[in-house]
Amino acid sequence: MPRNFHPVTSHIRTDAHANLIGSAWMIAAMAGFALEDALLKSAAGLLPVWQVLVLFGLGGALVFFGIAAMQGQRLIHPDVLSKPMLVRALFEVLGRLFYVLAIALTPLSSATVILQATPLVVVAGAALIFGETVGWRRWSAILVGLIGVVIIIQPTGDSFSALSVLAVLGMLGFAGRDLASRAAPATLGTSVLGFYGFLSVMVAGGLYRFFEGSTVAPVTAETALHLAGAVVMGALAYSSLMLAMRTGEVSAVTPFRYTRLLFGIGLGVLVFGERLDQTMWLGCALIVASGLYILWRGRQRSQPFS
Question: pTM of the prediction?
Answer without folding.
Answer: 0.80
